[in-house]
Each structure stands twice: as structure tokens, then as C-alpha cells.
Amino acid sequence: MINEEFLLDDAGRRQVVEQLLSKVKDHYLFADVAEEIVRTLQSDLDGKVYEAITSGSVFAQVLTEQLRMIGRDRHLFVSYSEQPQPEPAKKERHAVADEEVEQWRIAESVRQFGFERIERLAGNIGYLDLRGFAEARWATETVMWVMNILGNTSALILDLRQNRGGWPSMVHLLVSYFFADEVHLGEYHSREDHEVRQYRTFPYLAGAKYVNKPVYLLVSRQTFSAAEGFANHLRAQKRAIIIGETTGGGIYIGRPFYLTPHFQAWISTGGMRSEPLSADEEPGIVPDIIVPSAEALTRAHAEALKSVLDILGEQPYGALIGLKEEAEAAYQKLADL
Question: Which SUPFAM superfamilies does the record associate with it (predicted)?
Fold first, then answer.
């Protein structure tokens, strides 16, 4: 049961919506979409569409559904806190206390900067389970170590099925390991900074690059945010085959905005895509091979083994004869499943 102290009245609903629309209008990545959101929600507010809603959690859910329906962006949402929250102190948007940064770094290092598991699968297929994208400057040595270990594999499976995103800097660093030469990744648009930045892969990196070998990327409905950005880069450059389920649909970059003591909004403020999704497009990355996420690794392993056997072809095997036999045995086993 909701405490009467937190029941919404007309003035409370109007304050939330007006604050939300002000933030969306000034900060949302796509100005034309922001205008549509403002028109729709302002019309509903004036038309008393929300009049019967007195629950804060229900109101946040209704507003979130409207934002996502119009914006086709699951990084857009409104949250509700039963306990009133103070407005954050005014500070530079990018300013973060040194103590807070150090806490983030320690937390990321304990989780090995998202690198959950590295393995050599049958047939010399590399496997990397990456659960998050840490700040690149903290994880440079770890990335180099991981890529050096994977460098001698014949094909690679990157597992992002449980990756909810993280720092764009790690996306930029890690994706650069998959291209021999400098590649233009796209334009990053920032509504808040009023700038467009060109993004290219880093031409020189510490450690071994993973080039001229097949790459398979596993995704699920849980794959979100920066993980979707990483998948989108490899897909756009035709550098990986994506296997699994359509991803979560929050590819843009954003931040939280304070609305009232009980309400906060998350608004996308920047991103690599130049156009918003249309109403008939499903948010998220659609895989090249669509299978349930639980089956994605088995399918990717089979595809990787087939690619390795195709590469071996009819060439004299020499020291690779054992690899061919191992790959054939593993492929046959998977084919029988």
C-alpha cells in the first residue's frame, strides 16, 4: 500500500512532466524526436490523460513506456523513489571527485575489468566471456594480456550475452584490436557538447592484434548499451558474425537527470548513429544468425570450426595435422547435437 504522503496530485504530476520535457528538449540526442516527445506528453498532460494516476511508480512506468514508444530507445526512462532524494549539488557535468573515481577503479579491478573467462575451445577456437566495458585507461595492460593469449587461436568467439555496457573508451580500445589498419568507425554526435567527433580505430596498440581470422559475437536480450555499440562497430565493418538474440536497444550514451525529489530520468545525450530508429524498426542489434541465447555458443563454435576447416582446405598440414583432426572431431560432435 502506498503511503498517502507520496500520493501524486495534479500539481505533482504537472511538475514531473514539465521538468521531464524541459530536460528532453534541451538534452536528448535527436532534436526532432525530442520535439515529438514534448508535443505528445504535453498534449496528454493538458488533456488530463494522467489524471487518475496517483502512484509514483505507476506514473514513472507510464512515462517510460511513452518515451520508449516515441524514441525507440530503451535508454530513455523515468524512475521513482519512494524516499525523497535531494537535488545533486551543482557541478561541472564531467567533474567527478577523485575518491569516487578511485572507488570505481578498485571495483572494476576486482571484476578483472569485465574479463570473466578466457578459454581455448576444441579446434583451437578462442573464447572470451566479457561481462562489461571498463574505463580503458584502467584496463590497458589487462586488454593487452588477454589479446596476447588469444592471438594464437584460429578463430574467436566473443561472448557479450551478459554484458550490460560500460565505458565508450573501452569500446574504442578493444574494437581497434580487430583491424590491421586504421578504420573510420563513424561520427559521434553529442547534443550537450554541440559537437561531432570523428572516431577511428587506434592504428598502434600494445600487444597482438586479432586480424585476418574469423570472429563470432554472441549477443542476447541482455546485451545493452556500450556492448551494443561494440557489436554495431564490428557489424558495420563486416568484421564479425553476430549470433543470438536481438539486443536490448540502448545503444546511445546518456546520463541521469533530476526532476523532483521523487523522480529521475535517464536521457540519451550522444551516440554514433546519425539517425533515430523509425517506428517499424526494432530497437537493438539484429543478429546475422538468430538463435536462442542459450544455444548461441554451441552454434558459434560449430560455425567457427567450419571456418577453420575451410581455411585448412587442401593445404599440406605438417604441424597442423593434429589441429585438423581435433577440429573435425569437434565439428562432428556438434553436428550430432
Answer: ClpP/crotonase
Q: Which of 227, 219, 282, 241 is nearest to 74 (CA)?
A: 282
pLDDT value, residue 317: 63
Q: What is the mean pLDDT of residues 125-131?
A: 97
Q: State the DSSP H helix or E strand holding residue 218, giving kind and residue range, or none if neither.
A: strand 215-219
Burial of 47: CB neighbours in 10 Å, binned 0-12, 13-18, 19+: exposed
The residue written with cell numbers 523515468 in the block is 78
**What is the pLDDT, as a whole number, of residue 2?**
46
- Count of CB atoms situated within 10 Å of the CB of 34: 21
pLDDT at 94 over 60: no
Give how far Cα 279 sits from Cα of 63, 231, 294, 303, Å. 18, 22, 29, 34
- Does position 243 have pLDDT exceeding 90, yes or no? yes
Q: Strand 125-130 and strand 155-159: pairing?
A: parallel
Phi-psi sector, 113: left (phi>0), alpha (psi -120 to 50), beta? left
3-state SS class at 215: strand
Q: Which three cell numbers stand for residue 241?
A: 558474425
- The structure's pTM equals 0.85
Segments making up each domain of the chain, as ranges: 4-80, 111-252+275-335
Could you identify the residue written with the cell 561541472?
Answer: 92
Q: Architecture of 111-252+275-335 per CATH?
A: Alpha-Beta Complex (3.90)
Residue 276, CA distances (Å) to 92, 157, 190, 335 in order: 28, 30, 14, 40
pLDDT tens, residue by residue, 295-337: 999 999 999 999 998 888 766 666 677 788 888 899 888 877 6
* pLDDT, position 258: 96
**CA-angle at 122, arms to 117 and 126, nearest 5°:** 40
Q: Burial-class residue 268 by CB neighbours within 10 Å (0-12, 13-18, 19+).
A: buried
Residues 233 and 10: beta-carbon distance below 8 Å: no
